[in-house]
Design goal:
One of its GO terms (molecular function) is kinase activity. This is FGGY-family carbohydrate kinase. Belongs to the FGGY kinase family. Keywords: Kinase, Transferase. By secondary structure, the protein is of the alpha/beta class. It has two domains: about 230 residues, Nucleotidyltransferase, domain 5, CATH 3.30.420.40; about 170 residues, Nucleotidyltransferase, domain 5 (2-Layer Sandwich). Helix content is about 30%, strand content about 20%. The chain contains 13 helices and 16 strands. A hairpin with a 4-residue loop joins strand 2 and strand 3. The structure holds adenosine-5'-diphosphate and ribulose-5-phosphate (5RP). Ribulose-5-phosphate binds next to helix 8 and strand 14.
């Protein structure tokens, strides 16, 4: 048997993961690597490490690979895909002036008008000295896919949304082209479309088949959505990773830059959503994963904590309010760590509930149920707190890892979103 297995790679904020599945969607292998999301060299090392970690007999049967990456993380490369800038991360909001220029020409409420958008960062990067030889603007997943195919300059319509790509008409709109960065924009294809085959030298280096396909990828939280297996309008998927990302399967797209709301195209439907800077990264500032699990077991989720927190790892919020100056609110800290954690989990759950309310108020399909993915999905007390505040059933998704969603994309290609 050959080429009958599929590899999904997920590059998240705090780690990278690999997942190998067969035609039936059965997981045959997983791997995990710590890496530095700020360093492209570390992305590459993590990719090589993850592939090397897979059992050799499975590696030799890979038929297709797809990569998911942090959304809105951009960098500039030369014509050979070599980076000529460091990546600017998804939550980097230095491009305030550029966002104001975008606001003047973009349709009202467009996600690209946020200072954290890929487009604002692209304009900021392009204005830096030494970038005149830049040939492409790329994102984390597309850059890694291009390292696998040797073909730069391609992206998918999920990763391209925050660069201003018109996902309704599948084109770069004139208002984006008019911003002086048109020559750097990638050609955009559907997630899952075949980008190319792994060339021989890459295949030899990674010890994988030289006819293994590379399919266009997606963002980390859309990969998590795919993993969750949600299928009905009104199904929500909350990624409780380092950040808190919400996706609501909807018949209609909605957008509102003031509250950080945007809609990804999902075949003929839409993923209405937004991403808060709150999430597991704040919890990690206080507790390691073991302590989190221990303390969580002692929380009574049926009673309110009595604390009114807005947990953020640093000043600045994107959704459900887009406010670069918003300050974290995590005072007063009680002596009892169980109560403190209770307050933090409840605070994040309130942000989630407000987020879904905002999406529905803007016209997305009404919320029916919520699946959870990411590191926070395993926390039963948190799940109960969230169900109380969301007022709909909340369950852990059957597959909670974005890498599994990326593997599904590798396996099914464009059929997945059809
Ligand atoms: N038991 C737990 N309860 C709540 N959060 C947890 C628990 N265990 C881990 N986490 C959180 O999950 C996050 C990591 O999840 P993960 O999905 O790997 O994130 P990402 O891919 O965004 O880096 C960490 O920030 C951590 O705080
Ligand atoms: O916090 C993030 C890290 O990637 C992203 O902003 C989040 O995943 C949501 O992005 P998208 O909705 O475009 O998938």
């Amino acid at each position: 048997m050959s080429n009958d297995l599929f590899l999904g790679l997920d590059f998240g904020t705090s780690g990278a993961r690999a997942c190998v599945i067969d035609e039936g969607g059965r997981v045959l292998a997983r791997a995990h690597a710590l890496y530095d999301v700020h360093e492209w060299m570390s992305w590459l090392k993590a990719l090589a490490w993850l592939v090397a970690e897979l059992p050799r007999n499975l590696r030799h049967r890979l038929g297709a690979i797809a990569v998911a990456g942090t959304s809105g993380t951009v960098l500039l490369t030369d014509a050979t895909n070599r980076p000529i800038t460091a990546p600017l991360l998804y939550n980097d909001d230095r491009a305030q002036d550029e966002a104001a220029r975008i606001r003047a020409v973009a349709p009202a409420g467009h996600v690209a008008a946020m200072a954290t958008s890929g487009l604002a960062k692209l304009m900021w990067l392009r204005a830096q000295p030494g970038t005149a030889r830049a040939r492409y603007c790329t994102d984390q997943a597309s850059w890694l896919a291009a390292m696998l195919t040797g073909r730069p300059g391609l992206s998918d319509y999920h990763n391209a949304l925050k660069l201003g790509y018109d996902v309704e008409h599948l084109t770069w709109p004139d208002w984006v082209r008019g911003l002086g960065i048109a020559s750097l924009l990638p050609r955009v294809v559907a997630p899952g479309e075949t980008l190319g085959m792994v060339p021989l030298e890459v295949a030899v280096k990674l010890d994988i088949p030289d006819d293994c396909l590379v399919r266009a990828g997606t963002t980390d939280s859309i990969a998590a959505f795919i993993a969750a297996g949600a299928s009905e309008n009104g199904d929500g998927v909350t990624s409780l990773g380092s950040t808190l990302a919400l996706k609501l399967l909807s018949a209609h797209p909605v957008q509102d830059a003031a509250s950080g709301v945007y809609s990804h195209r999902y075949g003929s439907r839409w993923l209405a959503g937004g991403a808060s800077n709150s999430g597991g990264a704040v919890l990690r500032q206080f507790f390691d994963d073991r302590r989190l699990a221990e303390l969580s077991e002692k929380i009574d989720p049926n009673i309110p904590s009595g604390l009114d927190y807005y947990p953020l790892p640093a000043p600045g919020e994107r959704f459900p309010v887009n406010d670069p100056g918003l300050l974290p609110r995590m005072d007063p800290r009680p002596e009892d760590d169980v109560r403190f954690l209770h307050g933090l989990l409840e605070g994040i759950a309130r942000i989630e509930a407000e987020g879904y309310r905002r999406l529905v108020a803007l016209g997305a399909s009404p919320l029916k149920r919520v699946y959870t993915t990411g590191g926070g999905a395993r926390n039963a007390a948190w799940t109960a707190i969230r169900a109380r505040l969301l007022e709909v059933p909340v369950t852990a998704a059957r597959h909670t890892e974005a890498a599994y969603g990326a593997a599904r994309l590798a396996q099914q290609g464009t059929r997945l979103l059809a």
